[in-house]
């Protein structure tokens, strides 16, 4: 009887040992399989996120370029106030000269209509011929 009990205990121990060795031997394979399974499921979504991020980065870079260009344009406009003042002065001079020319032509026309031109002979009256 002791012999049978001993055989039973030895069998249990050897079965547990065999089971433990089987689990230890297969555990890395199972872990790698689970990793592979996870990667296969999540990889397409990760690739989609990556392409979305690249697209957003390109759009952001374009927007940043546009904003920087607009800022430089505004800065150059603030520096152009000197040119606008110069243009304003030139326009005022042009308006003044135009007014002077108009006044000169207006006076000249008044002078021509009010006094006869000496090169044009005055009409003769009939009393001188009789």
Can you put this structure into words, describing what you see?
It is built from two helices and no strands. The protein is mainly alpha-helical. The model has no long low-confidence stretch (mean pLDDT 84).
> What is the radius of gyration?
54 Å
- Largest sheet report: none
Determine the mean pLDDT: 84
By DSSP, the count of extended strands is 0
Give the helix level as a range of percent: over 70%
Structural class: mainly alpha
Rounded to the nearest angstrom, the distance between the terminal CA atoms is 187 Å
Q: Tell me the fraction of residues in β-strands, as a range.
A: under 5%
- Shape from CA axes? rod-shaped
Tally of helical runs: 2
Spans of at least 5 consecutive residues whose pLDDT stays below 50 are none
The run of helices and strands is HH
List descriptors.
about 130 residues, mainly alpha, 2 helices
SSE layout:
Layout (H helix, E strand, L loop, with lengths): L1 H78 L1 H34 L16
Give a short summary of the structure.
With 130 residues, this protein is mostly helical. Helix content is 86%, strand content 0%.
């Amino acid at each position: 009887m002791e012999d049978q009990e001993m055989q039973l205990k030895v069998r249990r121990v050897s079965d547990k040992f065999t089971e433990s060795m089987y689990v230890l031997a297969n555990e890395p394979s199972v872990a790698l399989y689970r990793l592979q399974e996870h990667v296969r499921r999540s990889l397409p979504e990760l690739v989609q996120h990556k392409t979305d991020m690249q697209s957003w980065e390109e759009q952001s870079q374009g927007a940043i370029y546009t904003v920087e260009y607009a800022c430089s344009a505004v800065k150059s406009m603030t520096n152009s106030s000197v040119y606008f003042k110069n243009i304003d002065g030139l326009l005022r001079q042009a308006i003044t000269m135009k007014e002077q020319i108009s006044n000169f032509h207006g006076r000249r026309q008044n002078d021509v209509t009010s006094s006869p031109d000496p090169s044009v002979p005055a009409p003769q009256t009939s009393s001188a011929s009789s």
